[in-house]
Task: inverse folding
């Protein structure tokens, strides 16, 4: 089993969650910093190297871009740019990663009919600190948590 997995929701209000211990320990979480319409390179670089265990970079699980009905063009563009920058950085540093569609990780970790509210409620049960976050931040971080938990569940 991998020691650390970082789940990333690359959306306009995207977030990351660093999990360890088989997905039962929330090591770190936060919003993705957006600079000039894209994820901050320095923030992502820190994530890449900060959570190394015995010289091994963490495994990353990144949500694939899936535009939703009614989603703004700016939101789709930001998600796509972030997705590309993240994959490019991971490739450049030789980090291991996988991508996963929301229609795959959500039913596997939360349940078939899971929506944003369900994700926040379930993440709050696992990690009570999530309950203290604002609604928008809690939603993105909850997604990132379950994206990482999906990777642990699948043994990626």
Result:
């Amino acid at each position: 089993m991998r020691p650390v997995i970082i789940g990333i929701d690359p959306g306009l209000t995207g977030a990351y969650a660093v999990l360890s211990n088989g997905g039962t320990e929330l090591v770190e979480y936060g919003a993705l910093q957006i600079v000039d319409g894209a994820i901050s390179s320095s923030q992502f670089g820190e994530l890449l190297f900060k959570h190394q265990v015995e010289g091994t970079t963490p495994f990353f699980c990144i949500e694939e871009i899936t535009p939703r009905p009614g989603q703004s063009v700016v939101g789709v563009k930001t998600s796509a740019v972030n997705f590309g920058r993240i994959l490019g950085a991971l490739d450049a540093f030789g980090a291991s990663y996988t991508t996963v569609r929301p229609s795959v990780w959500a039913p596997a970790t939360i349940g078939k009919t899971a929506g944003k509210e369900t994700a926040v409620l379930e993440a709050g049960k696992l990690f009570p600190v999530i309950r203290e976050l604002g609604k928008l931040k809690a939603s993105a971080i909850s997604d990132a948590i379950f994206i990482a938990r999906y990777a642990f569940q699948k043994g990626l």
Remarks:
- The beta strands are 4-9, 15-20, 25-31, 34-35, 38-39, 59-63, 97-100.
- The chain is about 45% helix and 20% strand.
- Helices lie at 41-50, 73-92, 102-109, 116-126, 135-153.
